[in-house]
Amino acid sequence: MIGIWYLAIWLFNIPRYLLPMPHAIIQEGIAKWDYLSHGTLLTFSSALAGFALAGVIGIVAATIMSQSRLLEKSLYPYAIVLQTIPVVAIAPMVVVWMGTGRQTIAVIAFIVAFFPIISNTTLGLTSTDHNLINLLELYSASRLQLLLKLKIPYAIPYIIGGLRISAGLAVIGAIVGEFVAGMGGRAGGLGYQIAESATMVQTTYLFAAAFAACGMGLLVFFTVNAASHFLLRNWHESSVRREN
Amino acid sequence: MTAVIQEAPPVELTDVAKTYSNGTVAVGDFNLTVSRGEFVTIVGPSGCGKSTVLRMVAGLGKPTGGQVLVNGLDPVEARRQPKSLSYVFQDPTLMPWRRVLSNVMLPFEFTKTPKAEAEERARAALELVGLKGQERAFPRSLSGGMRMRVSIARALAPEPSLLLMDEPFGALDEITRQRLNTDLQKIYADADRNLTVCFVTHNLFEAVYLSTRVIVMGANPGRVIDVVDIDKSYPRTEEFRNSMEFVSLCDRIAKGIASDERR
Asked: Which fold is adopted by the domain A27-231?
């Protein structure tokens, strides 16, 4: 892949300001390491906060909604609204309401990450195998016992699916939020740095920042995958090792 | 003169009917009384309502007509009593995220039984069904027959007085099914009248091999068309399966079902 990159630059004589060479990007990243890593850390912490908040609130909300048809019908529309509003529209609004600061970015990340979690968790809680429900009915299980012993463990693969999607979305949300929020300098995070280097045609640094963002997304993705493997390795089709 | 206290029969169905909201009459005018220690099998073609009847006995569904009593009580009430009834589904219905031992200990989590006692009884049940050593396995690594054994162990661990089984061996191959039949009737025999079994199947050979009494059920609507008493001692052997007596009993049931279908 990297070979093709070099080849394309040489073949088509692509200027440095459009597509820099890979080694140049790495050099740039190392040269500006302090600035780059600081920005990455800021963005990452906001994305993580937003993701964690979305996870907790999403799962709790879905669990509560699963217990009452009335609650589900009244609250779910709000979740759908949250999903359909485009992030680039809602991010400035949040900045206006909450001012500029890391908590604003975290909230924006939360908004984009929220829907997949509540949607997948709800699906998981309502898909429980009917025979297992009958089984617990025979033991005269209470609603709480049914939820804790059956519905939630059964829903874990679905929840993990939601978390996997939301992890990436939280990172994107944080970066877009920073893009729009316009917090400058060292407080800006990767999103701001990407906007800044694009404006100033510092293409090499732009790529370095983009790769850092990519790396962050990958880190989050692999972390969720590791958690998924740990939770599901013994029993779920998606994680179990088979010999044939 | 001393008063004789009449003990309620384990299962009593009186004029039981079940009609669904779309008008389908699943069961009509069904009467059955099961005495303590019997092994009663309801046999009939697919869709005749036999599973519906068994589910009503367990309280998983109410009759639209007539009355279902278990130990003289409404089934929902009866199953709250300790050592009352256990149900085995056609699917093993195990929790895949729990190990075998944890699955078998499940019933005890609803009766506030101390963990040590629950574990002891679960291990005993697993040994009874021939799965000693599999306690730490997960269901996914077991064969279909082994999973069904775990399901049966889970049903037997609380020492129920009534065991309900809904086509438990239907999804298994013939060899495994015959092996499990042999093991099941041995467990029943060893319980020495302390265990009452209600079994549902569409396999009439299985019905004859296992039971003290076979209720032959017809479809549309589901009702009793024949009652066959099988007076053969336990434990039953392969010889019984190949005997003339066995063949003639199966023949009687098969003819009953066939003539009902022709009507």
From this structure: MetI-like fold (1.10.3720)
Cβ neighbors of A199 (< 8 A, separation 6 or more) are: none
What CA–CA distance (Å, rounded) separates B207 from B213? 9
Q: Report yes or no for ipTM above 0.90.
A: no
CA-CA distance, B141 to B153, in Å (whole number)?
Answer: 17
A70 in contact with chain B, both atoms CB, cutoff 8 A: no
Nearest to B60 among A132, A137, A153 (CB): A137
Residues within 8 A of A (CB atoms), B 1-20 only: none
Is a pLDDT exceeding 70 seen at residue A212? yes
Cβ-proximal residues to A95 (8 Å cutoff; 6+ apart), any chain = A104, A180, A181, A182
User: Tokens 């992030």 correspond to what residue?
Assistant: A87
Contact present, B191 and B36 (Cβ < 8 Å): no
Q: What is the pLDDT of residues A73-97, one digit of tens each?
A: 888 888 888 788 888 888 888 888 8
Which stretches within chain A are classed as H helix? 2-12, 22-31, 33-66, 69-84, 87-98, 102-126, 130-138, 143-146, 152-181, 189-199, 203-232
In tens, the pLDDT along B25-78 reads 888 888 999 999 999 999 988 888 889 999 999 999 888 889 999 988 899 999
Which DSSP symbol is given to B14?
E
* Enclosing H/E stretch for B119: helix B115-128
In angstroms, rounded to a whole number, what is the distance separating the alpha carbons of residues A111 and A173?
Answer: 8
Name the residue in chain B with its Cα closest to that of A231: B97
Q: Which residues of chain B are under the pLDDT cut of 50? A: 3-4
B109 near A CB under 8 A: yes
Tokens of A138: 């025979």
B93 and A234: CB-CB below 8 Å? no
